[in-house]
Amino acid sequence: QVQVVESGGGLVQPGGSLRLTCAVSGFWMDSFAIGWFRQAPGKEREMVSCIDKSGGSTYTEPVKGRGTISRDNTKKTAYLQIDSLKPEDTAVYYCATGLTSCSSSPYYNPPYWGQGTQVTVSS
Predict the structure, then answer these.
(1) CB–CB of 120/12 below 8 Å?
(2) Is residue 48 within 8 Å of 20, Cβ to Cβ?
C-alpha cells in the first residue's frame, strides 16, 4: 500500500523559512517524479515545485527564487524549503508522486497524494 505523508508545516512569521518533508512508503519512488502542490482557502490547487527522478527541478512563479526542492531516495523522502515566506504562501501543502516526469500542465495529476500539511504565514 502506497503512503505519502507530509510534515513540517506550522505557523511562521513573514520573512521566515520552512522545510517541508514528504515521506513515501510502499512505493519505488526512485523512478518517479515528486511534486509539491498547495491550496489556499477559496483558491484552486496549484503546483509549487517538482523534482524528476534525475534530480532536475522546476519551480512555479509564486516560489521561484525562494524555493528549494530536493530528494533522498535512500530515505524515500523529498523536501521543499521555502525562504522569505509571505502571508500569501499560507496554504495546505501537498506532496504527490507516481508519474515518471514533471510537467507544467494544469492537468498534471499524480496518482498518489498525501493528506497535506498546513503552512500559515502570519505575524
Answers:
(1) yes
(2) no
| CA pair distance 93, 98, nearest whole angstrom | 17
Output 39-46 pairs: Cβ under 8 A, ≥24 positions apart.
39/91, 39/92, 39/94, 39/116, 40/88, 40/90, 40/91, 40/92, 41/91, 43/91, 45/94
Q: What is the pLDDT along the chain (123 residues), one digit of tens a residue?
A: 999 999 999 999 999 999 999 999 998 889 999 999 999 999 999 999 999 999 999 999 999 999 999 999 999 999 999 999 999 999 999 999 999 999 988 889 999 999 999 999 999
Residue corresponding to grid cell 523512478: 31
